[in-house]
Amino acid sequence: MKHRIVLVDPYEPLDRSLGEAVAQCGYAVRLARDIDGALQLLNGSGASLVVLRLADRRGVELCRSLRLLSEASIVGVCTRGDENLVVRCLDAGADTVLAGPLSRCELQARLTAALSRQRRLRQDDAGRETYRIADLTIDATAHTAMKGSRPVSLTPTEFRLLVALARRAGSTVSHSDLLSEVWGDHFGERPENLRLYVSYLRQKLDDTGEQPRLLMSERGLGYRLAVAAAAGTVKGHVDEEDEPTFAGRRAGTRGALLARRALAAISG
Q1: Domain 132-267, what architecture?
Q2: Would you list the DSSP string of 20-88?
Q3: What pLDDT, in 10s, does the model give residues 79-121?
């Protein structure tokens, strides 16, 4: 059975020679003209590889959106040999980019390599704890984090905090749960350190604007990693001055009171 490949060509006129070249390499080609069509085909056809035509910034932005919203391998094709465009596409998340006049032999080799790499990654991921949130990739087993194609250097405490949030991405994790998971049930670290380490993470994840889009604060409740960060539709609060409370899911009214007493004891 032929491997299915989604060819994304957002330009007019359509470059039929690119689709023909991919088909001649032995693949079943499905054509998409925009991000919605590409995602629909990836989800519905079982394809795991995208060939993306690059001619200008539009192709780069498509590449970035695909990387944020899909785990498919991305092979960019830039027939103009524009080095700047190639670099921008790689930075946007492409696995590889062909530049210059299209060579069928090189195209076939790159497609084969991309599929082989994806198979290896899937095999390696068996039994591993990995997360992908927007353009952030976290491997809790290997203790590594990537923001797009850039490694993120984190201290052990920063990494434990990031993993605790990633395990419940899209959901608010209470201050008490984060303090417990990162510093232990005895709350040996002062709770203000949670706010401090959140600011460290935001700096290292380039999420330091007035309205962070990835690591969100929910006032008086906790923090969450926003799975829709790339679309700019998430809502939350920046509560740098807000004191963390312990009114988490494990504490009712009485539990919250006891937690506040514990906080007062360790802060005194």
Answers
A1: Orthogonal Bundle (1.10)
A2: HHHHHTT-EEEEESSHHHHHHHHHHH---EEEEE-SSHHHHHHHHHHHHH---EEEEEETT--HHHHHH
A3: 887 888 988 998 888 888 988 888 888 899 989 888 888 777 6
